[in-house]
Amino acid sequence: MSHPKTKIETFFGTGGVGKTTLATTRALYLAEKGHSVLLMTIDPSKRLKQVLNISDDTSGKVSKVDSFKASFDGLLLDPLSTFLGLQEERNQGGKAQEIKNKILQILLRPYGGLHDIFSLVELSRQFNKGTYDYIVLDTPPGDHLLDFLESGRKINKFFNKKFMEVFTQINQKSSSIFELAIKTGINKLLSYLEKVTGKSFVEDFIEAVNKVYQLREDFTLAAQIPNDLKNNPNHHWYLVTSLNQKKIKQAGDLKEKTKNYTGEHLTFILNQSQKELIIPWNPESQKLKEIKSFLLNKEKEILNSFSVQEASNILFPEVISSSPKEHVLELKNIWEKESK
Amino acid sequence: MVHKANQIRNLKRLYVFTGKAGVGKTTTSLAFAKYLKNSGKKVLFMDFEGEDKKELCHDLGLDYKRLDLFQSLEIYIGLKLNSQIVAAWITSSEFFRSIVEIVPGMSYLIYLGHIMDMIKKDKDLTIVLDSPSSGHATMMLQSAYHYRDLFKSGLLFADIQKMLQFAQDNDIVRINICTIPTELAMTETQELKNEIQSMNFETKVFLNNSFTKLLEDENCQDLGPLTSRIKLEKSILEENKSLPLVSLSLMHHEQDLVKELSKDMGELV
């Protein structure tokens, strides 16, 4: 069992706090330091493509990001590409066959619903290759991250030996009473389901499960990743929260819910601080004075209520420039200051 | 309190609020529900993810329902197989649960089905749904298509067909897409709008946290650090002339915020 040297840095947090932009600044900072970096997004919205200026056509393929001084690789997760990639690896170089199974075809579509499972599988693939010094991970907003993290448990449940035995037995003769009992139970379930889903669905479903079962080693290896993220001190987590949004409770909840996955290696990022820009501003009109006071108080309230005792935190300022690329360039230098 | 102008024209049966994560969907959808309630309509505020809104809805005087996947599934399966007992047995089976868990798209289909059913059964009801953000909203709306293509026959197929026809009736459903004036949000909004319109759902985009709206009666020269943000907002409004605006609110508490915004929700009907 290999122990890859790759360090995984995960950026997570509620929606609209700046995860994608900050993950990009981190990837760029590490690349400028001479490391090999993969910046990967598992957010189905794929905002990363806009920040990196790469097209949706590159989905599922690792592509070189050239738009900055130092280059790094980028990857927009695509479940179908991951599945085909796994099959190709199984065939040891042979071309992956087109997916013929209707159920897999549909479920592997970009919004087909298998996104979380395949995010974990793709992360596992890239990590276990050992190619990169760092993988920087941009995640979906808020609690959707938990769906991703829980995919490990779901994979293990699905590949539960008992269920697998059952599937193979459905098409075979059963020998023991125990097996018969399980088979009868599952058959009964399936016969009820056939009434609602139609017979061809059940047949396609069994075939789909068998195809997925052929890749079970890759899936069960992927299921180990959440444990590694917690126990391996090489990996790090960044919980991003915005000083512009009053979602401090949600950020706290997210921290609690991910405690079992992040372990001790967590840093808070307090993003979009406007204090430096707003304090020197002296408007005349009453309305603008109210706005100034509102913005400052909001930021102060969030900073005061933030439980930062347990982990380190980094402050990032709000950036006025409109293009995502300019955002990235302006913020990247904060990492430099932090490392000192 | 009933608004004077309670002649709401073209009221839909289901309003789905979605948009890029973090733009204020929940707050606006609550404000919208409050507006309808104040106008004398029978409204139910619903969600199936995120913060529990029971207390907030109670304080706002809004009826609230949080959907639970296995509960909704049990109801549906019970209906189809004509037996709640069998349905309870199926939905409690480890095998069944692990299949359902591994494919989240299916849960969205179940939620949608349940919501459509509620609308059909109660002709006076309007539902305001605080939906997941863009990527997951797309999954939710596409789920009906995916599963219709999967089940080419059987009871589920027939039900999905019926549900889709019902949902695509533009008198029934409208998807309100919330956005803010930043580049990332506007691009995501356009993508989302295209995606949803290709599924034949009616959409309406509106701009949240609008400074333009907040400062509309002011003649402010000294905008300082707000200058570029307002400039960006103005350029967006130039390209989208009839974009409804929801003002940035300076209220501190969620309840007050929702009440204040609810006065201005007419344009989103």
Q: What proportion of the residues of chain B is helical, as a percent range?
A: 40-55%
Strand composition percent of chain B: 15-25%
Q: Encode the helix/strand succession of chain B as letters.
A: EHEHEHHHHEHHEHEHHEH
How much of the sequence lies in strands of chain A comes to 5-15%
Supply Rg of chain B. Answer: 20 Å
The biggest beta sheet of chain B, please? 7 strands, parallel
Alpha-carbon distance between the two ends of chain A: 36 Å
Can you describe this structure in just a few lines?
The complex is a heterodimer of chains A (340) and B (269). Chain A has 340 residues and is α/β, with parallel strands linked by helices. In chain A, 53% of the residues lie in helices and 13% in strands.
Describe the structure.
By secondary structure, chain A is an alpha/beta fold. Chain A has helices spanning 19-32, 48-52, 79-90, 102-107, 115-129, 144-149, 151-158, 161-170, 177-197, 199-213, 216-222, 225-231, 248-262, 275-278, 286-305, 324-338, and strands at 7-12, 37-41, 63-65, 72-76, 134-138, 236-242, 266-273, 312-317. Chain A has an eight-stranded mixed β-sheet, with helices on both faces. The longest helix of chain A is centred in the middle third of the chain and has 21 residues, at 177-197. The radius of gyration of chain A is 24 Å and the shape is elongated. Chain B is an alpha/beta fold and 269 residues long. Chain B contains twelve helices and seven strands. A seven-stranded parallel β-sheet of chain B has the order 3-2-4-1-5-6-7, sandwiched between helices. Chain B is elongated and about 70 Å long. The two termini of chain B are 19 Å apart. In chain B, 43% of the residues are buried. The model of chain B has no long low-confidence stretch (mean pLDDT 89).
